[in-house]
Amino acid sequence: MEKHSRNSVDLLGSSLASLERATRDTPRLKQVLDTQKVFGLVPERDIQNAQARLKSETHPQITYLLEKLEKEVARLRRKKASLESDFNLRKVRLESVLRKDSVESLEQEAKYERLRMLRTKRDRLKYSLSRQRLQKYRQIPSLPPPDQS
């Protein structure tokens, strides 16, 4: 019996050794055989529900922001038109002032030229009058020339 028990123990020992060799690679095999879901499949219905929920959440916000943007663009267009009309008005005023200044300066220059011409004419007439008086007095020998003051 002892022999049978020894054989049983040896058989059990060799079985354990075989079992240990066979299961030594189990953690690696578990990892190799374990399926990892890299890309999980989602039912089409779930995708449609998620899209509908996203649309219902974002659509009002997008609509609100678009309306706000359109109002702001309209306000900026009105401001641009106002600034352009103000610019054109100021441009016309400036041109008017410049034209008026140039017309006034031309008129002023014409007045100065006329004044110079009249002074020259006055001086010539004075000289001419003076010569005529002198000639008149020279014709009358008894009278002395008048005092020129």
TrEMBL record:
It is found in: Chromosome, Centromere, Kinetochore; Cytoplasm, Cytoskeleton, Spindle; Nucleus. It holds the Pfam family DASH_Spc19. InterPro entries: DASH_Spc19. The keyword Cell cycle applies. It comes from the Eukaryota. Keywords: Cell cycle, Cell division, Centromere, Chromosome, Chromosome partition, Cytoplasm, Cytoskeleton, Kinetochore, Microtubule, Mitosis, Nucleus. GO terms for biological process: attachment of spindle microtubules to kinetochore. GO terms for cellular component: DASH complex; spindle microtubule. Belongs to the DASH complex SPC19 family. Component of the DASH complex consisting of ASK1, DAD1, DAD2, DAD3, DAD4, DAM1, DUO1, HSK3, SPC19 and SPC34, with a stoichiometry of one copy of each subunit per complex. Multiple DASH complexes oligomerize to form a ring that encircles spindle microtubules and organizes the rod-like NDC80 complexes of the outer kinetochore. DASH complex oligomerization strengthens microtubule attachments. On cytoplasmic microtubules, DASH complexes appear to form patches instead of rings. This is DASH complex subunit SPC19. It comes from Candidozyma auris.
